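4.2 Preliminary Data

To establish feasibility before requesting continued support, the project team ran the inverse folding procedure on a target of 441 residues. The structure was first converted into the token representation described in Section 3, and no sequence information of any kind was made available to the design step. The complete token record follows.
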């Protein structure tokens, strides 16, 4: 009897497996956010999981008002290269970048009350960008429509700045931009499979807490903060003596910036290596090589390029037809430059504000040893040297010694940092605590 039950169970399991294999597997990716780096990673991650699950179709459940063009271009290219049918379900909006992504899919279904179109390129304030950007978007919309077998002129009309096109489900069906009107993903699956049995697998079921954390850290706002931590921390560390909190801040910012991008397949080894090389070149320029020239400029370029390329999937720099496309990198470069500028000015302001308070007295020594308390050893009266010329007695990096006209050797520092060689002539700007502060004549 026991052997019979075992055999019966095996037969039942075999029939269950065969039934499961006969089902059409539809892998659902829910994209209901602005199109940015995290959305790009979400879609590429979903396509990878769909391949691992041997899905017959990918259902892109879409509801977005658009977002970053570079991220949308990367998603579009990934869809065009995917080897299985990708079905877009517009639920409820596919505007701007969302329209571009929808057109890249093999078929489009829309929900009652939804719309698709309005792909004019605008800035963050909602103002229409110059025709250079519109021309690029028009070309990309046409190329995408041609690749998916749709009328390219309809796609181009969605970018028309004078009379931009947006379509309802009925209007989209009339021009071949919508295969049907469905009220939920199950109705879409029923139409796609032709009424055959199917199973819908949701991508969210495959996401671990690590995947969700990576999605959070790839948020453009957080990425900008991490960049400011990197640049601001390095800037403050260079401007202050010793090694302390600013350097730790920069290291934490770099880890939070590069780690999720690396795990999310946005950053590659060469980008992280380029970032480290850039920091080394900047350090050599500041602490070893006098002046500021090729080494420092090369370091700055290396850092900017590494931070910018870490925002973009390198595979997406090539179009679906293999042609090189550097447009997705332009916006990240702008974000890096703006974030770096804000970080530098913010660091200067923050240091001045914090130094004027007692906030960090527990980690920084502020005690003054005044003459009234009996402390001596610091030469006084150096304020009278302001405006006079002195000669550099030892190389200044930016501190060193100078010789006055009457032969005295004094402790000195360049007021605005930098390097001065022995024998150069400097002008005294001010004096404090037995040290004169100079600048070049």
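Position-by-position output of the design step:
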């Amino acid at each position: 009897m026991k052997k019979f039950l075992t055999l019966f169970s095996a037969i039942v399991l075999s029939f269950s497996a065969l039934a499961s294999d006969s089902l059409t597997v539809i892998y659902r990716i829910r994209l209901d956010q602005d199109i940015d780096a995290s959305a790009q990673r979400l879609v590429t991650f979903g396509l990878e999981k769909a391949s691992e699950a041997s899905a017959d179709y990918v259902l892109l459940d879409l509801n977005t008002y658009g977002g970053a063009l570079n991220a949308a271009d990367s998603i579009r290219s990934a869809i065009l290269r995917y080897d299985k049918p990708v079905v877009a379900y517009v639920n409820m909006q596919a505007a701007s970048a969302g329209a571009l992504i929808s057109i890249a899919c093999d078929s489009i279904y829309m929900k009652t009350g939804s719309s698709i179109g309005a792909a004019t390129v605008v800035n963050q304030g909602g103002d229409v960008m110059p025709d250079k950007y519109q021309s690029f978007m028009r070309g990309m919309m046409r190329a995408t429509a041609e690749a998916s077998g749709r009328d390219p002129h309809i796609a181009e009309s969605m970018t028309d700045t004078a009379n931009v096109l947006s379509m309802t489900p009925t209007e989209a069906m009339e021009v071949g931009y919508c295969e049907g009107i469905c009220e939920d993903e199950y109705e879409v699956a029923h139409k796609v499979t032709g009424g055959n049995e199917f199973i819908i697998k949701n991508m969210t079921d495959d996401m671990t807490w690590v995947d969700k954390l990576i999605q959070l850290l790839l948020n453009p706002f957080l990425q900008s903060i991490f960049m400011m931590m990197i640049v601001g921390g390095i800037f403050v560390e260079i401007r202050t003596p010793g090694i302390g909190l600013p350097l730790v801040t920069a290291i934490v910012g770099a880890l939070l910036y590069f780690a999720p991008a690396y795990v999310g397949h946005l950053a590659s080894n060469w980008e992280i290596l380029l970032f480290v090389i850039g920091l080394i070149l900047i350090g050599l320029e500041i602490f070893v090589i006098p002046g500021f020239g090729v080494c420092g400029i090369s370091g700055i370029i290396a850092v900017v390029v590494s931070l910018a390329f870490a925002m973009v999937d390198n595979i997406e720099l090539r179009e679906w037809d293999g042609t090189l496309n550097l447009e997705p990198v332009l916006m990240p470069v702008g974000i890096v430059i703006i974030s770096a500028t804000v970080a530098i000015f913010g660091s200067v302001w923050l240091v001045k504000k914090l130094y004027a308070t007692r906030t960090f007295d527990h980690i920084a020594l502020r005690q003054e040893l005044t003459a009234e308390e009996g402390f001596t050893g610091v030469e006084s009266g150096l304020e009278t040297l302001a405006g006079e010329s002195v000669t550099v007695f030892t190389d200044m990096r930016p501190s060193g010694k100078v010789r006055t006209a009457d032969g005295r050797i004094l402790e000195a520092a360049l007021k605005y940092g930098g390097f001065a060689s022995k024998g150069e002539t400097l002008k005294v700007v001010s004096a404090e605590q037995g040290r004169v502060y100079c600048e070049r004549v």
